Amino acid sequence: MSLARLQGLDRSLPVWVVSALALVLLMALPIGWIASLSVSGESGPTFAHYRRVFADPALQKALWNTIVLAFWVGLASIALGAPLAWLTARADIPGRGVIRGLVMASFVTPPFLGAFAWVMLAGPNAGLLNKIWRGVSGSDEALFNIFSMPGLVFVVTIYTFPYVYIMIANTLALIASDLEEAAAILGAGRLTVARTVTLPMAAPALLSGFILSVLQALALFGSPAILSLPAGFHTITTQIWTFFHFPPKTEMAAAFSMPLLLATALLLLVQKRLLGRRGYAAVGGKGGQRRTISLGPWRWPAFAAVMAVMACPIFLPYAVLAKASLSRAWAQPLSWDNFTLANFSFTFFEYSATQAAIVNTLELGVMTACVGAGLVTVLSYVTSRRLIVGHQLVAFLALAPVVIPGVVLAVGLFIAYTRPPLLLYGTLWILFIAYLTKEMPVGYAQSDTTFRAIPPELEDAGRILGGGRLRVLRDITAPLARSGVIAAWCFIFIGVIRELSASIILFTPATKVMSVVIFDLKEEGQFGAIAVLGLVMLVMTFATVALVQRVLGRDFLGARE
Amino acid sequence: MKRLSALVGLLVSIGMLVAVPASAQDARVEAAKKEGKVVWYTSLALPTAEKIGKLFEAAYPGIKVEVQRTGSQRILQRVMQEMQANLKLVDVIHTSDAGHFVLLKEKKLLMKYSPAGIDAFPAGFKDKDGYYFTLRATVNVIAYNTKLVPAAEAPKGWKDLLDPKWRGKMVTAHPGYSGVISTHVLALVQLYGWDYFKQLAQNKLMLVQSAVDPAGVVASGERQVAVDGGDYYYYQMKKKGNPIEVVYPKEGVPLVISPSAIASFAPHPNAAKLFTDFTFTRELQQVMADSEGLYTGHPEVKYPADKPKLSDLKLLTVDPEELERRNEEIKSRFVEFFGA
Fold first, then answer.
1. ipTM for the complex?
2. What is the reported pTM?
């Protein structure tokens, strides 16, 4: 008995210690520093920083702008994501695979690249779409001014709605049609069925999608920096970033990070309760037929409408990036006179920051993905097989970094690692820690799904036949889990190469990554070079996506065709 | 390219001729080669900075120039942030906010080093204690898009920009990013007071960061008029065939001097000195004047005929110490008026 206990303890102890240490390093240290610095004064604890932050009208405005942005992004993402999800999950719209592919593409497109492309598309005067509009309508006014709150909401939404899409599409795929059919038999019209049956069952997913989109909008740095600063307004994230400008006001950055941190934590709590309370027997049942609803004559018009919508995150921005990369002057038509390869030669051969940044990005991407995938695999194996006491706590901790927006994480890491004992600022390690922390929840969620899909019975059978746990792991579990681990690797990798909000605070000249270089170039208005680097980043991203598709035999968004 | 290599040949031969005796110079080149590179934080427009870097690399094979180009204020932020973390990364610091060098000198972060041939430069281009020297100068101007604004209607002076007819049609760069602009703001505050900027902000300007960016914004037609920005970049854009015209207001143009200095803790001190000497040679200063449209302090430099001489312009100058003292005031009041 005591021996067994000891053995049990033996096995779990290292895992505990390692994950506890990793956690301190990853989460407690930065957040602890933020909290302590936000109340530290010359002579003992003080609330002066909070008072200054919340009494300043300019900062109040930044706070309000963020709330407005996040709220409208949440609503607009639902308005966009829910119908799309319904169309592809339940209706017989043509080209469902194509549509899912496009949604996935907008999911992985770095939002700051999209924002940059939309500057070229919808800048009020030089924007290509506004020029066309003026030509067609004869009007002097711009159709759309991207440098505005609505412009910002629009750009953030087109890269955020996939969160809603995923939630809804996966839920709809689980709601059996029996109830809908029953309602229809009882004489309810199509709309009534949708309103009284489908909608209530999808409501938790809708709300949860709303919250996820709000969280995205809260944490975003690149898009506001590109679109709201020219228009003369700040959001919380851009404001935190300016606190780092000289002379630095790190204490105020820390104090101003707290509302963002609390809002995120609160929203996630709400979401968890929503999903946790989902006692709908009808949702989540396997079996049950899902009837496809015929759109009749509306099939192709619906398809055309969806393509028009998808032009916003994909076709138009990608096209304008490609055009800018090949143009002398991005605002001029792509004529022979305006055609050049100079942007490519400048970016790759003359601009000395490019190569180092690509190397740094790849190095960090591979390193974080390897360590991250390894870590989440161990953690999710331990939690899904309940190997140790307190496995729920481990699961919670692995998902916890979700509550820290990138900028806030960076503030904490900066404070924590610019002083002894760990002077990591100036090395790639500080970026590595930031990325690992930020991508952990995504990797863990993916990995967890993998292990849950592998029935423990197979392992038990192996054990019964005399295999040790390690042997079983090697011969049974590992081969089954391999594709899931590779997928987790890719998710982390994609997240790392597009990361901007933490990098922008943590980089030094020797540790610049591609996103930071692109942001630097943006501040100087070097459109051609940005377009070239943006395309490189997209190529890297889609190569990774293609790898996931191959490995998983399904697309990114969860459901099988 | 041919011109470039001819120039390189010239520069190499000049490199042998600078004031330092040949043997001493050789030893220094060797020492610099051992260091292998020089890290240059510069606020020069990116293509210009990269070009200078490449010229140096061609003249001194084996020594790489690591160009870190960003706005003047960001450079100061970097240097101070790195000092705080005890990181010694930068060799040569070059920004357009002369106030920075007052601060850096005071904090003992600069090395005392006079580039070869600096004696001939005018007094305004030299720190009296010998820590920093002006590498190049530019003036802030108004610029407009000639396709969108007829010459007759273009603004002639700073106060013309307050006319409501320009509402929503103008762009400004940011003193929180650019030293060219922080200098500009202080110069005009001295001329008109903060009220000028308060009124200017009523015209709803587009805000960009770098002082070279307004040139791109005006060239693309996104805005018709730029209310500030270094004239050198407008000059380059115009030369490339963009529809840009520059206005030098008769009330005076803010003169921006951009000093260069070696960090006291430079990790590659020999390369840093070699590079600094190189950038102050007549040949390189001439390159900056010719193809980049910059002004310099070198007495023998000839300027392009299609650009006004500094002596023809009424210059508004600011005192570096005052610029340093009022750095935060300039940024925060600008943000107060313009919103971000």
1. 0.91
2. 0.92
